Amino acid sequence: xxxxxxxxxxxxxxxxxxxxxxxxxxxxxxxxxxxxxxxxxxxxxxxxxxxxxxxxxxxxxxxxxxxxxxxxxxxxxxxxxxxxxxxxxxxxxxxxxxxxxxxxxxxxxxxxxxxxxxxxxxxxxxxxxxxxxxxxxxxxxxxxxxxxxxxxxxxxxxxxxxxxxxxxxxxxxxxxxxxxxxxxxxxxxxxxxxxxxxxxxxxxxxxxxxxxxxxxxxxxxxxxxxxxxxxxxxxxxxxxxxxxxxxxxxxxxxxxxxxxxxxxxxxxxxxxxxxxxxxxxxxxxxxxxxxxxxxxxxxxxxxxxxxxxxxxxxxxxxxxxxxxxxxxxxxxxxxxxxxxxxxxxxxxxxxxxxxxxxxxxxxxxxxxxxxxxxxxxxxxxxxxxxxxxxxxxxxxxxxxxxxxxxxxxxxxxxxxxxxxxxxxxxxxxxxxxxxxxxxxxxxxxxxxxxxxxxxxxxxxxxxxxxxxxxxxxxxxxxxxxxxxxxxxxxxxxxxxxxxxxxxxxxxxxxxxxxxxxxxxxxxxxxxxxxxxxxxxxxxxxxxxxxxxxxxxxxxxxxxxxxxxxxxxxxxxxxxxxxxxxxxxxxxxxxxxxxxxxxxxxxxxxxxxxxxxxxxxxxxxxxxxxxxxxxxxxxxxxxxxxxxxxxxxxxxxxxxxxxxx
Length: 660
Prior knowledge:
Blueprint: E1 3-5, H1 23-27, E2 32-37, E3 43-50, E4 53-60, E5 66-70, E6 77-84, E7 89-98, E8 101-114, E9 121-124, E10 145-151, E11 159-170, E12 173-176, E13 183-188, E14 194-199, E15 206-209, E16 215-221, E17 227-231, E18 240-241, E19 250-257, E20 263-269, E21 275-281, E22 286-292, E23 298-303, E24 310-315, E25 321-324, H2 330-341, E26 346-352, E27 358-364, E28 371-376, E29 381-387, E30 399-406, E31 412-419, E32 433-435, H3 452-459, E33 463-468, H4 477-481, H5 490-504, E34 513-518, H6 520-531, E35 538-542, H7 561-571, H8 575-580, E36 593-599, H9 608-620, E37 625-629, H10 639-657
Parallel strand pairs: 32-33, 32-34, 34-35, 35-36, 36-37
Antiparallel strand pairs: 1-29, 2-3, 3-4, 4-5, 6-7, 7-8, 8-9, 10-11, 11-12, 11-13, 13-14, 15-16, 16-17, 17-18, 19-20, 20-21, 21-22, 23-24, 24-25, 26-27, 27-28, 28-29, 30-31, 31-33
C-alpha cells in the first residue's frame, strides 16, 4: 500500500496506457466496489469483479491477503450491497438476472456469512423458509418481498432491525404490494429467525430510529399522492400524523434524531422552491430553519460514525459544497480535512471502526472513477487500497465544468460541459458536440462527477453537453413543475438554447452536432431532430419513448392509478396535443441521420415505441440504423452488450460528425 501523508502533495497514481483508452475500460462494470472495514479494524470487505462475476472478498487489513472469497450460490445470482454487523459477521443482499433479461434486480434475499466464508446462510427472502413436515413450530416462513435495513442494533451482536415490503403475484410476475403496510422485524443474522416488532403506518413508508434504536418517525406517500409524516412517542405507542402549525414547508421528510432524542432534523421544500433543512423540537413543537440554498436542493448527507445522526449536508451545483451542523463532531472535522487534502475531488467516509481510529474513504472527481483509501484518523495517513476502475487514468480524462445560460423566456438553466482532451476531431480549435439529455425526466438531474459514457465520448474527441432543463429535479418545485405539460416544447427549447449558447461563444463546431439520450433522453434526442432539423446532423435514441399516446396503454407506468395520474400530470390528457409532440407523428420533419437502440425486454419503454417510429420512417422511405438487444430491458447491463452498443455509437458519430 502506498502511504500518503496529509498536508503534503498527494502522489498521483499513474497507469501505463495506450494513447486511446479501450471502450471496454469505460463500459465494463467496476473491478472493485463497496469497500468497508470491520468494526474492530482487522479486515476489509470488497466486492471484486472477476470473469464477469461479482465475488465478496474479506482481506486482512495488514497484509491485504484474502481470508475468504465467496460468491452467491445460484445461477445468475450476484452479490449486492454488503454490511458488517459485528467483528466477524457480514450480511449482503442478492441481485438476480435472467437468461432473457440481463438487468440485475434486488430479489429481496439477505445472506449472512463469517469473514472466512464459513456459516454461509440465507437468512431472509423467498427461499429462506424451512421445509414444513406437519408442525409449524420452530419453522421459518419465507418472505416474498423486499427489505430495508433500519438499524444494526450495535448493542445486539446477533440481530438487526429491518422493514419488510411484501410483494404480490400479478400474472406470472411478483410486484410490490401497495395495499399492505411494511412489517418491522428483528432478524437474527446467524439463524434467520425473525421476531415481528411492529408495522409502519403506510405502504412503502420509510422509518427513522432514535439514538436508542426505537422506530419513532416514518414518512411516506398517502393515497392522494401527498407526502405524510408519522410520529410516536415510543415503539409501543400508536402512529399519529405529524402536523406542524405555522410551518412554511411542504413535502416534509424526517432525517435523523439528535443524540439526546429531543429534536429531529427535517427537510422540506420552501414554497415553490428548493429543499431546506429544519430543526424540530419534539416537546415544544417548534421549528427552526438551519440551511437553505435557493438555487439547488440538498442532496448529500453526512452522518456521524454511529450512522444515526446527521452532522452535515451538501449541495451539488458544481463541485459538491458542504455545511457542517456539528463542527465539533470528529467525523465532520475529518471530512473537512479530507476535502482540503483531496482538492478538486469529493470525499465520502464509507465506514469506520468502532473506536473511530480507522476509516474507509472514497474519493472521486469528474476525471477519477473512484479510489478507496484506508485512513488512520489519529495519524492522518491514507493508504490507497483499491480503485473502482484501475484501467482508467484520471490524467487522460477530460474536465467537466458547470455552465449556466438564460433560456429564451428568461429562465436560468444550468448544466455541465465536458471538453475533450483528445484533439482527434477538432477543426480550428472547435470540437464536435454531443448533446446528451438525461432520462427521467422529472425528479432526475445530471450531477458533476465521473460519467463513463461522457468520458468515453470525450476520449474520442467529442465535447459533451448535459443540460438540467426545466422539469429536472433538484432545483425546486417550481422549476420541476415548469416542465409539466411541456415535453417537446419548452423543455426541448432549453436543450436548443444551451447548444446555441456554446455555438455563440465559439466553443463548438456548429456544423457537427449530434443529440443522444436514453429513456426520456431518447425522446428528447428525436424531438430535437424534429424541432431543429438544421441544428443536429444526427440523433441517437436509446430505449426511448417516441409515441406519447402509447405511454397510456403500453409499459409498466399505466399499470396502476398512480402511474396514470403521473402521465396525465406531465403529459396532459389531450391525445392530439400528445401527437404533435411525438416523433412518430412528426417523422417527416427529421433530416438528421438516426440510430435507434432498444432492449426487447423493456417494460418501462416497450420496444413497441421504437417499432412504431421505425414504421413511420419506413412509410416515408427514411433510412435509419437499428440495434435490438434481445436480453436487455430498460438499461444495458451485460458488459458485452455495452461494448457492442458503444462501438456502434462511436462509428455512427464518426461517420456523421467526426473528422472524416
